[in-house]
Amino acid sequence: MKGLYPGLTFGKATRDAYGEALRELGQEHPEIVVLDADLAKSTKSAYFGEEFPDRFLNVGIQEANMVGMAGGLASCGKVPFISSFACFVILKGFDQLRMAVAYPHLNVKVAGSHGGISPGEDGASQQSVEDVALACSLPGFVVCVPSDEHQMRAAVKAAYRHYGPVYLRLGRPKAPLIYTAEPSDFQFGRAVRLRDGGDATVVANGLMVGAALVASEQLRAEGMGVRVLDMATVKPLDEEELRRAAEETGGIVVAEEHLLHGGLGARVAQAVGSLCPVPMEFVGLDDTYAESGDPEALFRKYGLTADHVVAALRRVLSRRTWGASQANSLSI
Amino acid sequence: MARALADGTRSAAQIHALRERATTIRRHIVEMLAEAGSGHPGGSLSAVEIVTALFFGGVLRYDPARPDWPDRDRFILSKGHGVPVLYAALAEAGFFPVAELRTLRKINSRLQGHPALGTAPGIEASTGALGQGLSIGLGMALAARMDRRDYRVFVLLGDGECQEGQVWEAALAIGFQRPANLVAIVDYNKYQLDGAVASILDLHPLAAKWRAMRWQVQEIDGHDLRQVLHALEWAAGVGAPACIIAHTVKGKGVSFMEGENAYHGVAPTEEELAKALAELNGALARAELSIEREAAEDQEAGR
Questions:
Q1: What's the ipTM?
Q2: Residue B135 and residue A69: Cβ atoms within 8 Å?
Q3: Whether the predicted pLDDT of B298 surpasses 90
Q4: Of the candidates B280, B67, B173, which has an alpha carbon nearest to the alpha carbon of residue A70?
Q5: What is the distance in angstroms between the Cα of B117 and the nearest Cα belonging to chain A?
Q6: Which CA distances in Å does A328 have to A156, A281, A311, B172?
Q7: Does B142 touch chain A (CB under 8 A)?
Q8: Confidence band (pLDDT; 50, 70, 90) for B2?
Q9: How far is CA B52 from CA A215, B17, B58, B87, in A?
Q10: Which residues are paired to A174 by β-bridges?
Q11: What is residue B5's DSSP assignment?
Q12: Contact state of A55 with B117 under an 8 Å Cβ cutoff
């Protein structure tokens, strides 16, 4: 993936940070119980299992049963973290997430690993492109797609502190570092303004935050100021920050490693449409599954690179109804 | 509330009192469904003796004043459409006023059309999408094990519900994890919404399926309160996951509903309600007469 993020250094995969943060939380909080459905080595929940075998349960290949069990554990005061691949825990467990977790609003944390198409070679059956939309559709769920290892550690701890269901999306490949250390002020529903600028805004999460930063640098060289928001929390959205972005920059691009349908882009569009409508463009998978392949090659083929973000920014600028003099000066 | 005697014996007077309670619960069921104008009488009435034995036979440990008491036993109605029988039992047990039963299925009521955790006190899980209660029960049973608490978990399943794959995921997991504090009860009334279970997706041989998942199994007449109580006490002492297959009759206790699948999900009309209540009142009167005969039998048997 390194070819996609010139100028950025790489850290761990966010799934590694998940396992490490869980293990750290487990030391202080005996009510945390971790369940996995035979993917503990891949989701990294095994880190917790090695340290706390009495509070770790590999339930076997039974995602629906695992979600139901988590509901039962939570109703008895435990704080279950359940993990599997995103496409399995969210899709196979969806009815159970609705009935045993969301409807009774229980304190269950769901970690979906191998989110997006970046798992790569295993192909579309193991990639997850619908999980964020489905998780967002569950009333009361917090849905969070952290961008790097530092933010993931903070998000796991925030998930523990938050009473109620949380969905965390974990990534398989090593992720470019967005932060230099674990942010101490991380909060669900609070975007992070990584770059300031007045010409347009990119709202991104997960691996697309790195692409947004690269795109911002590229356009800076052309004299354009692009604001970059790390919108790790897809639900609830930071509506105040979105309003400011719309009012102050006049155009928004949303970039995510997910279907355009029902994910971050759809939610941001809904918010911006009611708060302060401005031209918007979207970077993501357009009504398609991906395929097997090297993740970097997949990102190029399916439109998830900084170049795609730049192109979307240029389209937004061409549609802006105000600030046109700035846009015209950029030879779009 | 303390648990019952473990020896399974009950005097005729105790059984009689339970039968009366069962009839009262049946009256609540038909009344609340007629008032609501919708709901599921058939599968509520088939489970009356099971639920009566659990709540009033000294099986479940509960305190209606403390519905969130951590050491209470948990009862999960996995066949959530049968919730009228549970509401009736909870009201009779004092979790909420009996008068509240008339609010079933109405807006702003705590009595949702299917069980919902966090609404009426005494409801332990949200059910109604079939197949999920056993998994939730396993989570609760494991929480008890981790916390070294001695509460027990009872899950009531429908027979049609056992067609759901998740039931067998959970049965397999429970057979392997072996929580001894978990009991499954199947209300085997032989009918599901669209018709006879045997004609839609037969469960036979049902006991063998549970045994193959490493459960201890007993089959009983689910309307014979002595058998139900004996089986629940057997389950408590067996030291392994226990499944009670209770053979029942859908619509039991109301002659025109018994075995008549039209009443799976259709509430009685006012006229039908009057007829049903007349029958149930008659049943109470007959029970009064039988008490003296059974008491005499008790005396003869030295109980």
A1: 0.93
A2: yes
A3: no
A4: B173
A5: 5
A6: 44, 18, 15, 66
A7: yes
A8: very low
A9: 68, 10, 10, 12
A10: A13
A11: P
A12: no
